[in-house]
UniProtKB/TrEMBL annotation:
Name of this chain's protein: Uncharacterized protein
Originating organism: Promicromonospora alba
Lineage summary: Bacteria, Bacillati, Actinomycetota, Actinomycetes, Micrococcales
Region: Disordered, residue numbers: 1-21
Source domain of life: Bacteria
Compositional bias ranges of the Polar residues kind: 1-17
Length: 249
């Protein structure tokens, strides 16, 4: 999904190429809704977000001119194809490090999304799946407890998620133990208005998995509209996974 903003007198966007760093900073602080977590989006914070997004893209081989275009578009409120649930990737690549394997989905506009899969060290009958990593494992022959797991959504424009603990039973209903802290590493061209982390269903029951959901409401700069984002942890049927608006599990 993309939203094209109207022109704003109090903002500026660099041209592509040599004119860096790219900026898009309102002269006046943004006025946000009651109970908002962010009060302003300063140029320093924005440049830090851009630097983290560039580091992510560089890590996975996105050319510099493509980075410029994607960031400039995001700052103007135009989201890349990696944020569009209906878009199909043009290629899918795989890689790994000592702890995880990666699936890199690339789109025709040069954007990408990364799904990280933890190498399982858990008991037989359970497995780690996309974008749920860093878990500590303990338990018995009847169940495995996963503690401190990182549920992470990461694309060119957004990097956010939360920590959680849950339990997988060899025979029985899987369950969520706790929803821990939430985090946001960057959001390009979007100011977070509010966010909420909640347990939707504590224990798996027939036809309904256990769920934890992080929902986030963003304001698109410069104050031209809002977008709803989020990510879920789903636990049930002796497995667990991350669910987003662009991926199912």
């Amino acid at each position: 999904m993309s939203i094209t903003p109207a022109a704003s007198a109090g903002s500026r966007v660099s041209t592509l190429g040599t004119d860096r760093p790219i900026e898009f900073c309102p002269e006046e602080p943004l006025v946000e809704s009651e109970g908002a977590l962010d009060t302003t989006v300063g140029c320093d914070d924005q440049q830090d977000d851009i630097a983290q997004s560039r580091a992510f893209m560089t890590e996975f081989g996105v050319p510099e001119d493509t980075q410029d275009e994607l960031i400039t578009n995001a700052l103007a409120g135009v989201l890349p194809l990696s944020e569009d649930p209906s878009a199909e990737p043009v290629s899918t690549e795989s890689g790994e490090n000592s702890d995880s394997t990666f699936q890199v989905l690339r789109y025709s506009d040069g954007s990408l999304a990364v799904r990280e899969i933890e190498k399982s060290t858990a008991a037989s009958g359970t497995r780690g799946v996309q974008a749920v990593t860093g878990c500590s494992h303990s338990g018995t022959t009847h169940f495995t407890t996963y503690s401190g797991c990182k549920i992470h959504y990461r694309t060119v424009v957004f990097s956010y998620g939360f920590y959680a603990s849950f339990r997988i039973y060899g025979s029985g209903n899987d369950s969520v133990i706790s929803a821990g802290s939430k985090f946001q590493e960057y959001s390009i061209g979007h100011s977070r208005l509010d966010w909420r982390l909640r347990i939707i269903n504590q224990t798996e029951d027939p036809g309904n998995n256990a769920h934890i959901e992080l929902s986030i409401r963003y304001l698109i700069l410069p104050s031209v509209g809002e977008i709803q984002k989020g990510v879920r942890l789903r636990v049930g049927s002796n497995k667990y996974c991350q669910k987003t608006n662009t991926s199912n599990c």
